């Protein structure tokens, strides 16, 4: 009995070890397969080269179009009857832009932490241009207050907002180790958060109406580092980055033709006494408020994605970024003479 079971066990084991129809022995990759694998890096490189050629062929006409537009500016869009909301609209640059838009038949919504200034500007616009102008107080660095502002504008019938200009901002001239913490926090909050929260609150309405324009007022200090105001310059770089990212978001969403963006980078603007007092010996004279406002509004109406004031300063700044940092520093020292800007910060 035992021998019979052993025989059956041996037979079962032999059957188990015998290769079945699906148990084929492993073989080395064929020469054809190895050839295809070896071609993969080459095909990747060829694909990249093909795409690069495509970019060049499509990009050259666009480049010449941009150069041509610097000589012959694009036509300005008609904004008569549209509602323009300007943060920091009670004074300075915001006030000057409000006047220019009102002259073109726009209705204004002026938002400012200084409600009295916004009220005065709104009253002047209504009297001088015969358009609607409303004034609101809000801390635009607060998301909750931005939400409440949008609800008030809708409830009062002052909207919907067609052009949003995020202009509110604070300035601080100080090296980073000399920066007052409370002031630095305020500069960061107002200069950066206001752009994000105001855009978040009003963007959905623009998308639904398939019409809108969002403008972010940055600075030349957001293109080229400003050592005399490290925290301030950092916030302006943040604004430029936010606007660039927003532009690309709308483009990949297929919305860039209906909701436009413009990032504004002005040179020093003599908006307040502290700016004028700081600029003791600038190599190039600061812009007046009216000069800056006029060029900014023209750029917005041309629907330019980036507006620099003066225009050639932007071209020069982008050109300088191609060079190594030591070369850029030579430009700062000998052409801009940045070290002469203000003697009080040398110590």
Number of helices: 11
What is the number of domains?
1
Task: Work out the number of β strands.
Answer: 7
Provide the helix percentage: 55-70%
Low-confidence stretches: 1-5, 11-16
Q: What order do the strands of the largest sheet run in, or round the barrel if closed? A: 3-2-1-4-5-6-7
Strand content: 5-15%
CATH fold topology: Rossmann fold
What's the CATH H-level superfamily name? NAD(P)-binding Rossmann-like Domain
| Structural class by sheet pairing and helices | alpha/beta
* Overall form: globular
How confident is the prediction overall: mean pLDDT?
A: 88
Overall radius of gyration: 31 Å
Alpha-carbon distance between the termini?
A: 107 Å
| Helix and strand run | HHEHEHEHEHEHEHHEHH
CATH architecture heading: 3-Layer(aba) Sandwich
User: What's the CATH class, please?
Assistant: Alpha Beta
Oligomer: single chain
Largest sheet geometry? 7 strands, parallel
Subcellular location: Membrane
Region (Disordered): 1-26
Keywords: Lipid metabolism, Membrane, NADP, Oxidoreductase, Transmembrane, Transmembrane helix
GO molecular function: all-trans-retinol dehydrogenase (NADP+) activity
């Amino acid at each position: 009995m035992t021998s019979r079971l052993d025989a059956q066990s041996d037979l079962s084991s032999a059957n188990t070890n015998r290769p079945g129809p699906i148990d084929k022995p492993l073989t080395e990759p064929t020469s054809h397969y190895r050839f295809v694998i070896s071609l993969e890096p080459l095909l990747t490189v060829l694909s990249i080269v093909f795409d690069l050629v495509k970019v060049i062929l499509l990009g050259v006409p666009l480049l010449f179009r941009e150069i041509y537009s610097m000589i012959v500016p694009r036509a300005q869009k008609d904004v008569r009857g549209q509602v323009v909301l300007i943060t920091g609209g009670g004074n300075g640059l915001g006030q000057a832009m409000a006047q220019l838009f009102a002259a073109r038949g726009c209705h204004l919504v002026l938002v400012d932490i200084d409600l009295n200034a916004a009220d005065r500007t709104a009253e002047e616009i209504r009297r001088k241009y015969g358009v609607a102008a409303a004034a609101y107080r809000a801390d635009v660095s607060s998301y909750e207050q931005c939400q409440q502002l949008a609800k008030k504008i809708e409830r009062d019938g002052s909207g919907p907002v067609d052009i949003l200009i995020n202009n509110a901002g604070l300035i601080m001239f100080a090296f980073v180790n000399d920066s007052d913490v409370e002031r630095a926090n305020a500069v960061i909050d107002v200069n950066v958060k206001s752009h994000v929260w105001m855009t978040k609150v009003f963007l959905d309405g623009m998308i639904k109406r398939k019409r809108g324009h969002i403008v972010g007022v940055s600075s030349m200090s957001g293109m080229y580092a400003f050592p005399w105001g490290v925290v301030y310059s950092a916030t302006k770089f943040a604004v430029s980055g936010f606007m660039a990212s927003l532009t690309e978001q709308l483009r990949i969403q297929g919305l860039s033709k209906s909701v436009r963006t413009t990032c504004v980078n002005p040179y020093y603007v003599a908006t307040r006494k502290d700016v004028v007092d700081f600029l003791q010996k600038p190599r190039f004279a600061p812009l007046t408020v009216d000069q800056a406002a006029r060029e900014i509004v023209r750029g917005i109406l041309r629907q330019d994605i980036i507006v620099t004031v003066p225009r050639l300063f932007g071209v020069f700044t982008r050109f300088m970024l191609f060079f190594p940092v030591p070369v850029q520093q030579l430009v700062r020292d000998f052409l801009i003479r940045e070290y002469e800007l203000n003697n009080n910060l040398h110590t």
